[in-house]
Write a structure and sequence with these properties.
With 196 residues, the chain is α+β, with helices and mostly antiparallel strands. Helices cover 22% and strands 41% of the residues. The protein has helices at 3-22, 111-120, 177-189; strands at residues 35-43, 52-55, 61-65, 69-75, 83-92, 98-106, 133-137, 140-148, 152-161, 164-173, 192-193.
């Protein structure tokens, strides 16, 4: 398997892990793998500060990140998963920090809000480092949470966009947590979203 194919596969696995970690039940059905469409790999042109704009081909959103990015869409064809589709851009910085942004499209009306509210309770695994912080991001309900285990720290922002949720994540080694926190703030604040 080539390095790029391994990275795309890792991105798909990471997206599944991200969703299952954030929400109390799986968004993608376990009985069949999701259909994966790779739109672009290692895309992006860096500006003078080493950041690029990662625009999702089908997800109608963009973010800025200090890494080349992959642009991938996932679809559940079984009809059994709460999420019908997910659009993800993600990459890894030269210092090893993993960044991703995913727009999750749910099948059933009300699911996005229900899961957003459950994640606001801060009862997920691993346990949050601090209580989830609710706020309004460009007129949309948003939630920031950070969590850690013995080797890594993760900063997550969830933004409720009507019947969909956009989840942005930065993960780093625990030793790089302070740097990752600053990077996460800039990454999260760069989100530009269309309200489909």
């Amino acid at each position: 398997m080539s390095k790029q194919n391994r990275f795309v596969r890792h991105s798909a696995i990471a997206a599944g892990i991200l969703i299952s970690a954030l929400f109390p039940f799986r968004a993608i059905a376990e009985d069949a793998p999701p259909q994966v469409t790779v739109h672009r790999q290692q895309a992006g042109e860096f500006d003078a500060k080493g950041w690029t704009t990662a625009r999702s081909t089908e997800g109608d959103f963009s973010v800025r990140m200090p890494a080349k990015f992959n642009d991938v869409s996932f679809a559940d064809s079984t009809g059994n998963a709460p999420a019908a589709k997910m659009f993800t851009v993600g990459g890894q910085s030269t210092d090893g920090m993993k960044l991703s942004a995913s727009r999750i499209v749910y099948r059933k009306s009300g699911t996005a809000k229900e899961l957003f509210e459950k994640s606001a309770l801060g009862t997920g695994e691993p346990s949050p480092l601090t209580p989830p912080k609710r706020f309004v991001f460009h007129g949309l309900p948003a939630l920031d949470v950070s969590s850690a285990n013995s080797s890594s720290i993760e900063f997550t922002r969830s933004v409720l966009v009507g019947e969909q949720v956009i989840v942005l994540t930065v993960e780093s080694a625990i030793a790089d947590g302070a740097v990752a926190k600053v990077l996460a703030s800039k990454f999260f604040d760069s989100l530009v979203v269309s309200r489909k």
